[in-house]
C-alpha cells in the first residue's frame, strides 16, 4: 500500500466571488475529470490555511464508499458544515440513528402525500402548459411584455415560445409543487419569480449563500458566525413563515382534521420537536426544488438537442425515464459527493488517514469510457434501459446507500406529470437567433455546458417550444 504523501497532487485555482454563484465558471471539477489518475490529492488554499482532500474517480471504490459496505464513512465536512450553518438539522448534516429517524419521517410524509394524491404535479404541469399556450394564442405577440420565462418569436415561419431560462421555469414549477406539498399552499412562483415574491426570492438568496459556503474557500467567516449577512435576515424571513405554518398545522391537528399537507404529518408526530419539524420543512425547501428541477432541466435540454430521442420519449413514460437517467448520468444535479473516513482506510492502493475528506467525483465516474464505452460523452438513452426508478446500477445521480436522495420519488412524479405533458404538447428545439429580430433557426451545433460545480445548473441555452396542432390532452 502506498503512502498518503505519494498521491498525485493538484492545486486548485481560486474562483473569484461574484454576486451570483450560478454565473458561468470554469469549474475545477471538469479539469479533474480529464485526469488519468483514478485518485489524487486536492490542495485548496483557504483563508484558514491549506485544505487537503482526496478526489476519487474510480467507480468500484465509489460504490464501496456510497453503499457503505464497511460502515466507516460519514458525510464530508465540506458538505455538512455549510448546510449545518444554515439549517442545523438538515438531513445532509445528520448522522447515525438520528439521521435514520429524521429520514424516515421525511420519506414517510412524502410517500403518504404521493399515495394520497396531494403532490400537485399534474396541476402545475397544466398551469405551465396553459401559460405558454396563452402567450402563443395572443393576437399581437409584439405587445406581450417580456416575462421571466421568455418571449414569442418565429421558427420556420411558425409562431413559437422561446426561453433562455428553462431551468428557472422548471424551478418555479418545482417550488410551487413543493410549497403546496409541504404547507398546503402554493407560493405562486410560476406567476411571479421576482423580488416581489418575498418567500421565493428569499429562498433563492439562501440557496446562493449556501452554494458560496460550499465553493468559496477564500471566505470562511461563516464558520464562526453562521448568521452573518446576508444569511441572518434571510433566515428570519423564512423562519417566521415556517413557524407560523407549524402553529397553523398544530391547530388543525388538535381539531383532529385529516392531513392536508406533509407538515400535518410531522406536527401530528409527538416525537418531533418544533425545531425538528422546522428543519424538515427547510430540507424540502432547499433541496426538494433545486436538485429536482436541475435534473429535469438537463433531461429537457438533452432531448431538445436530440429530436429522435425526443420522439421516443414523448411516446411512453419508460422511454422518457430512460432519457432522464441518461441525462443525469451526463449531468448529475450534484456532481460530487463528499465522505469522511472515520478510521484509517485504503483507496486505490493508497493509505487514507482517518478524518480525511474524500470527494467522490460523480461527474467523472459517469463519463468513464471503461464503464460506459468510448461514446461515454454522448447522450444515448438506450444505454440506460428502464429497470426501476433507481436507474442504471453503475450511475449514482441520486447518491447511494443509506444517504441516497430522498427526493427521487418526487423527481419521477414531476418527470411524468410536468415534463412528459410538455413534450406531448410541444416540440422542444434548440435554437439560435436568426437574421431578423424575433426570428430563430434551429441550432444543431451548440451544445449546452454546465454552470457552477456545486449544483450543476444548465448554462447558456435557447429553447423553442413549437406547439403541436391539437396537442395531447393532459
Notes on the structure:
The protein has 474 residues and is of the alpha+beta class. The protein has one domain: Orthogonal Bundle (Cytochrome p450). The chain has helices at 28-33, 59-66, 77-86, 96-115, 121-137, 166-183, 198-215, 231-254, 262-267, 274-287, 290-304, 307-315, 317-330, 362-365, 369-372, 408-425, and strands spanning 9-11, 39-46, 49-56, 73-75, 151-155, 158-163, 336-341, 345-347, 350-352, 357-361, 426-433, 439-442, 463-467. Helix 11 crosses helix 13. The radius of gyration is 22 Å and the shape is globular.
Short recap of the structure:
The chain is built from 16 helices and 13 strands.
Question: Which helices and strands appear, and what pairs or packs with what?
Answer:
Blueprint: E1 9-11, H1 28-33, E2 39-46, E3 49-56, H2 59-66, E4 73-75, H3 77-86, H4 96-115, H5 121-137, E5 151-155, E6 158-163, H6 166-183, H7 198-215, H8 231-254, H9 262-267, H10 274-287, H11 290-304, H12 307-315, H13 317-330, E7 336-341, E8 345-347, E9 350-352, E10 357-361, H14 362-365, H15 369-372, H16 408-425, E11 426-433, E12 439-442, E13 463-467
Parallel strand pairs: 1-2, 3-10, 5-12
Antiparallel strand pairs: 2-3, 4-7, 5-6, 6-13, 7-10, 8-9, 11-12, 11-13
Amino acid at each position: 500500500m502506498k503512502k498518503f504523501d505519494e498521491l498525485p497532487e493538484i492545486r486548485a485555482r481560486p474562483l473569484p466571488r461574484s454576486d451570483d454563484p450560478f454565473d458561468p465558471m470554469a469549474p475545477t471539477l471538469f479539469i479533474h475529470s480529464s485526469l488519468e489518475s483514478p485518485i489524487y490529492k486536492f490542495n485548496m488554499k483557504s483563508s484558514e490555511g491549506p485544505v487537503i482532500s482526496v478526489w476519487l474517480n474510480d467507480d468500484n471504490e465509489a460504490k464501496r464508499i456510497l453503499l457503505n459496505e464497511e460502515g466507516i464513512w460519514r458525510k464530508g465536512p465540506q458538505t455538512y458544515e455549510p448546510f449545518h450553518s444554515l439549517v442545523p438539522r438538515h438531513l445532509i448534516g445528520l448522522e447515525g440513528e438520528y439521521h435514520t429517524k429524521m429520514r424516515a419521517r421525511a420519506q414517510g410524509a412524502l410517500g403518504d402525500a404521493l399515495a394520497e394524491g396531494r403532490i400537485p404535479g399534474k396541476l402545475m404541469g397544466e398551469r405551465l402548459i396553459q401559460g405558454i399556450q396563452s402567450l402563443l394564442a395572443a393576437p399581437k405577440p409584439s405587445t406581450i411584455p417580456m416575462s421571466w420565462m421568455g418571449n414569442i418569436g418565429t421558427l420556420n415561419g411558425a409562431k413559437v415560445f422561446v426561453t433562455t431560462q428553462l431551468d428557472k421555469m422548471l424551478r418555479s414549477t418545482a417550488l410551487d409543487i413543493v410549497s403546496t406539498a409541504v404547507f398546503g399552499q402554493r407560493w405562486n412562483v410560476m406567476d411571479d419569480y421576482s423580488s416581489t415574491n418575498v418567500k421565493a426570492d428569499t429562498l433563492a438568496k439562501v440557496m446562493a449563500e449556501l452554494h458560496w459556503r460550499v465553493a468559496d474557500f477564500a471566505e470562511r467567516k461563516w464558520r464562526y458566525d453562521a448568521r452573518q449577512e446576508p444569511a441572518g435576515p434571510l433566515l428570519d424571513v423564512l423562519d417566521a413563515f415556517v413557524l407560523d405554518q407549524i402553529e397553523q398545522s398544530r391547530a388543525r391537528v388538535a381539531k383532529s382534521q385529516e392531513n392536508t399537507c406533509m407538515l400535518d404529518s410531522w406536527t401530528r408526530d409527538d416525537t418531533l420537536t418544533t425545531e425538528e419539524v422546522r428543519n424538515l420543512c427547510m430540507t424540502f425547501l432547499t433541496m426538494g426544488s433545486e436538485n429536482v428541477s436541475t435534473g429535469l432541466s438537463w433531461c429537457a435540454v438533452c432531448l431538445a438537442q436530440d429530436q429522435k430521442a425526443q420522439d421516443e420519449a414523448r411516446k411512453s413514460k419508460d422511454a422518457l425515464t430512460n432519457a432522464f437517467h441518461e441525462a443525469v448520468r451526463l449531468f448529475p444535479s450534484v456532481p460530487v459527493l463528499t465522505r469522511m473516513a472515520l478510521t484509517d482506510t485504503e483507496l486505490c492502493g493508497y493509505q487514507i488517514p482517518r478524518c480525511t475528506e474524500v470527494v467522490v467525483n460523480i461527474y467523472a465516474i459517469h463519463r468513464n469510457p471503461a464503464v460506459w464505452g468510448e461514446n461515454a460523452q454522448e447522450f444515448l438513452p438506450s444505454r440506460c434501459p428502464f429497470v426501476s426508478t433507481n436507474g442504471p446500477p453503475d450511475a449514482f445521480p441520486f447518491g447511494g446507500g443509506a444517504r441516497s436522495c430522498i427526493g427521487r420519488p418526487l423527481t419521477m412524479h414531476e418527470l411524468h406529470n410536468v415534463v412528459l405533458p410538455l413534450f406531448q404538447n410541444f416540440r422542444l428545439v434548440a435554437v439560435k437567433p436568426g437574421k431578423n429580430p424575433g426570428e430563430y433557426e434551429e441550432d444543431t451545433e451548440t451544445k449546452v455546458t454546465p454552470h457552477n460545480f456545486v449544483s450543476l445548473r444548465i448554462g447558456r441555452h435557447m429553447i423553442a417550444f413549437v406547439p403541436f396542432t391539437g396537442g395531447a390532452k393532459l
